[in-house]
Each structure stands twice: as structure tokens, then as C-alpha cells.
Design goal:
The chain is α/β, with parallel strands linked by helices. It has one domain: 3-Layer(aba) Sandwich (Rossmann fold). The protein is 43% helix and 15% strand. It contains 9 helices and 7 strands; from the N terminus they run E-H-E-H-E-H-E-H-H-E-H-E-H-H-H-E. The protein has a 7-stranded parallel sheet with strand order 3-2-1-4-5-6-7, with helices on both faces. Helix 1 packs across helix 9, helix 3 packs parallel to helix 5 and helix 4 runs parallel beside helix 6. It is globular, with a radius of gyration of 17 Å. The termini are far apart. Bound molecules: nicotinamide-adenine-dinucleotide (NAD).
């Protein structure tokens, strides 16, 4: 799993619990050079501290709210200036308003729906467009983080289920278009992890506990397990895999009834 010489952009580190942080550590440990795109100024200090503690001294940090016009393109431009090449992109960004993550799905507002879909699914498209521009003839690998609520009804996920269904379709459509350029696009479907985003879902803690009792492995997945599977999809060892959703969920998704 040697990533010496690989250059990666990771979107979505907020704190040490973020899936994007787990992936950042896994890529760094394998020798990849990193650009981290973070949502806004308020995250910067915490990310700098994490990098310092991890001994990552050369990462490029670029602010990027994915809803801002041109912001995603600027991340890729700055990455290119700093590192002169791109092989891996990690989309680990999602958002829905708190009031859309509880209660009746029929109450979902048009605004809330658009915002959730724009941030959580659409944003992968401009990232892939920019990646295509930068990735050389040897191509590269793009991954996005999804969740089972794309296919099954998970209480309270509401509009985030719609967003994940859209995201998984976007992954397949991009994999089809970018395949001839040697660029692979896949999704990792993680079991529940205690992150800021997850805790925005009503009754998340109850669900988290009940998963651990029901999954074939009788426990929840760890950040490191999700990060290692992500590194596999980003690296050359998965060179024959594209357009797929890889479940890293201690087996929960195989259960017929829960
Ligand atoms: P997190 O809160 O640590 O990460 C979410 C990230 O999205 C944050 O860094 C946040 O700043 C970023 N973000 C939100 N709006 C943004 C915007 N407008 N512009 C730029 N960035 C923005 O939580 P996480 O659980 O690590 O989430 C990462 C991904 O993993 C998400 O796609 C999430 O749906 C997915 N996921 C999480 C779980 C889980 O249980 N935690 C399970 C499966 C999939």
C-alpha cells in the first residue's frame, strides 16, 4: 500500500472524529502528500493542531465552502501550484438542517432539500470536473462517503437519505464518464460513527447502540477501519474497481430485518 509520490485532496476534516481525518492519517501513513480543504475559518486552528500532533508538517490547507461559486476550483488550483499533480480525491462532506433530520419527511422544505443535495451530492460533480483537469495520463481515484439510508429507510435520516441516493448515482455516472481517462470513482458506505454530522440526526445514539447489538460482528465499525478501506479504494491495489459502493459497516447491510 505504498503511496509514495501520490498527491491527494481531502475535503471534510472538521475535527479528530471526522471520517476525513481518519482518511488523512491513513494516506499520510502511506506516504501521500496532502491538501486539506476545510469549510471555514472556525475550523482552521483545530485542524492545524491535529496536523501538528500527527507530525504532518507539509499539508496545504485551503478554505472551501462548497456552496461558494468557484471555491472548489480554487482548491484544485492551489493544490496544483503546491504539489504539481493529483492522484486522489476524498469527498467527505455532507449537510442537512437539523430540523430536516427529525420528524416527518413530508415537512421537508424545498430550500432544505436543495441545500442538502447541493452540499452532500452535487459538490462531487465540480470536484470530479476539476480532478479530470489535473489528473495526468495515469488517472487517479476519487471516493465519496455514503450511508445505507440511500437504499433503506433509516428513521430520521430523511433528506440525507435522498442526498445519499443522489450521491451514489453521481458516483456511478462519474465512474462511467471518467473511466476512459483512467479515473476511478467509488463510494464507501460506513456504519455509524460518532461524529458531529451524525449527532445532528435525531436519536442517533439509540441507533448507534442498537447497531452494535445486531451487526454480524456485534460491534460498530471504527474510524480506522473506514479509513483503511478508503485508502484501499484510493490506492493502486483497487485498480480494477470503479462505480462501486463498498460497505464498511461490520456487516449490518446484509441483514434482512433489523
Ligand atoms: P463531520 O461532521 O466530521 O464531517 C462533515 C464535514 O462536512 C465537515 O468537515 C463539515 O465542515 C463539512 N461541510 C458541511 N457543509 C459544508 C460546506 N458547505 N462546505 C464545505 N464543507 C462542508 O462528519 P462525518 O461523519 O465525518 O461526515 C463525513 C461524511 O461521511 C459525510 O458525507 C457523512 O454523511 C458520511 N457518513 C458518516 C457516517 C457517520 O455515521 N458518521 C456514516 C456514513 C457516512
Amino acid at each position: 500500500m505504498d503511496m509514495e509520490g501520490k498527491k491527494a485532496i481531502v475535503f471534510g476534516v472538521a475535527n479528530k472524529r471526522s471520517i476525513a481525518w481518519g482518511v488523512t492519517r491513513a494516506l499520510h501513513a502511506r506516504g501521500a502528500k496532502l491538501t486539506l480543504a476545510y469549510q471555514g475559518e472556525r475550523f482552521l486552528r483545530a485542524i492545524e493542531k491535529l496536523l501538528e500532533e500527527e507530525g504532518i508538517s507539509d499539508a496545504l490547507l485551503v478554505e472551501c465552502d462548497v456552496t461558494e461559486d468557484g471555491a472548489i476550483g480554487r482548491v484544485f488550483d492551489q493544490h496544483q501550484e503546491r504539489w504539481g499533480g493529483l492522484h486522489q480525491v476524498v469527498h467527505s462532506v455532507a449537510f442537512a438542517r437539523r430540523e430536516e433530520l427529525e420528524g416527518d419527511f413530508t415537512e421537508t422544505s424545498a430550500d432544505g432539500f436543495k441545500l442538502a443535495l447541493e452540499i452532500s451530492a452535487y459538490s462531487l460533480i465540480p470536484m470530479a470536473r476539476a480532478a479530470k483537469r489535473l489528473m495526468g495520463p495515469e488517472g487517479g481515484s476519487i471516493i465519496a462517503m455514503t450511508y445505507l439510508a440511500s437504499q433503506r429507510v433509516v428513521a430520521n435520516y430523511n433528506v440525507m437519505g435522498s442526498a445519499k441516493a443522489a450521491l451514489e448515482h453521481v458516483v456511478r455516472q462519474l465512474a462511467f464518464e471518467l473511466g476512459p481517462h483512467g479515473i476511478r470513482v467509488n463510494a464507501v458506505s460506513a456504519g455509524p460513527l460518532q461524529t458531529v454530522s451524525a449527532r445532528g440526526v435525531a436519536n442517533f445514539n439509540d441507533m448507534y447502540r442498537s447497531y452494535a447489538e445486531k451487526t454480524p460482528l456485534r460491534r460498530n465499525v471504527t474510524l480506522e477501519e473506514v479509513a483503511n478501506a478508503s485508502a484501499f479504494l484510493l490506492g493502486d491495489e483497487s485498480s480494477g474497481i470503479t462505480g462501486q459502493v463498498l460497505f464498511v459497516d461490520t456487516g449490518f447491510s446484509i441483514l434482512a430485518a433489523t
